[in-house]
Write a structure and sequence with these properties.
mainly alpha, 4 helices, oxidoreductase, Aldehyde_DH_NAD(P), Ald_DH_N, Ald_DH/histidinol_DH
Length: about 80
């Protein structure tokens, strides 16, 4: 099983603070880089679709068809 690191409000606040500093510096990534990252996320979800569906079934009791239609096909 993967290591599950706890992400609490303190960690979230620290991350937001760091991201605001980065954004304020003007050193954010280009539009092309951002599009590339989104495309990579799409590929990742396609590659791990069955695992995502299984997690939705296990965690939220979603039937496979509902999980596939609502979570997988709605990404476009």
């Amino acid at each position: 099983m993967a290591d599950m690191t706890r992400f609490d409000s303190e960690a979230a606040s620290a991350m937001v603070k760091e991201l605001r500093v980065t954004f304020g510096s003007g050193k954010t990534q280009s539009y092309g880089w951002r599009v590339s990252q989104l495309e990579s996320i799409m590929k990742l979800t396609d590659h791990h679709q069955q695992e995502i569906v299984q997690a939705l079934q296990s965690d939220l009791s979603k039937p496979e068809t509902e999980a596939f239609v609502h979570e997988s096909l709605s990404k476009t």
